[in-house]
Each structure stands twice: as structure tokens, then as C-alpha cells.
Amino acid sequence: MQFGTLGEIVFKPMFQPESLASSQSFRIATHSRLFQYPNLEFLGPDTRTRTLSITLHKEWCDIESTLQTLQANAENGQVLPLILGGKKEGDYMVQSIRKEGAAYKTDGKNLISIKINLELVEVQ
């Protein structure tokens, strides 16, 4: 059973986003007027972004391989379909990858888990 996918990365019940946030911006131009409130002009939608927080754990995935895949997708500007719950949410590019909270074995060499935050921007 899978929760969804981001490109070739498959989210499964134990390896799925812990949080998912969406943001939609709109473009509004401001035109200054002398001694009056400015005129505002609606220009249309701006970018739509998604933020995914995921913990990668060695029991659920190959951490290094997953990180390398995400990094390569970001560096190459790869357009990735985001599918959640069987529904395509759109096509996205990785805008940023933030890593935090890494846990290592006592030898300090082997990574057990790491939390990543992905900022995705929709491509249309």
C-alpha cells in the first residue's frame, strides 16, 4: 500500500510526509497616486508551493539513495508529479531541501534517520 509519490520516490505507510502545507500567492500591482490611496490591480495567480516534512529511516528506505535522488532532482530542475492518496496534485520542482535532526549509531558513522523538509513549487 502506498500513500503517494513524488517522482520516483514512493511514500508508504511508515514512510510518508509527517506534515503537508500548501500556499497560493496572487500578484497584485500597486499604482501610486498623488495624495490618494494607491490603485491596486489584480494580475492573476502567482506560484503555488507545497512543503513536505518527512523522516527518512533506515528501516523504511535507503536514506542515502533517497537523499541523492532528491538532490539530483533539485540540481537538474526535474519536474516531478506529486500524487497523494491516488490523486495527482500537480507537477512540482524541488525549490529547497532542508535537513535536520539526524540520528547516528553510536559509532557516529551510520545514519539511522534524518528529517527533511522539502519546498516544492508547482510547474504549469
Give a written overview of the molecule.
The chain has one helix at residues 63-75, and strands spanning 4-6, 9-11, 19-33, 36-57, 80-84, 87-104, 111-123. With 124 residues, it is mainly β. A hairpin with a 6-residue loop joins β6 (87-104) and β7. The model has no long low-confidence stretch (mean pLDDT 88).
Quick description:
The protein contains one helix and seven strands, in the order E-E-E-E-H-E-E-E.
The total tally of domains equals 1
Give the overall shape. elongated
SS element count, helices: 1
- The topology string of helices and strands comes to EEEEHEEE
Gyration radius, rounded: 19 Å
Low-confidence stretches: none
Helix content: 10-25%
Mean pLDDT reading: 88
CATH architecture: Beta Barrel
Q: Report, as a whole number of angstroms, the end-to-end distance.
A: 29 Å
Q: List the strand order in the largest sheet.
A: 2-1-5-6-7-4-3
CATH structural class: Mainly Beta
What fraction of the residues are assigned to beta strands by DSSP?
Answer: over 45%
State the total count of DSSP E strands.
7
Q: Biggest β-sheet, characterized?
A: 7 strands, antiparallel
CATH T-level fold name: Elongation Factor Tu (Ef-tu), domain 3
The computed structural class is mainly beta
Key words describing this protein structure:
Elongation Factor Tu (Ef-tu), domain 3; 124 residues; elongated; 7 strands; 1 helix
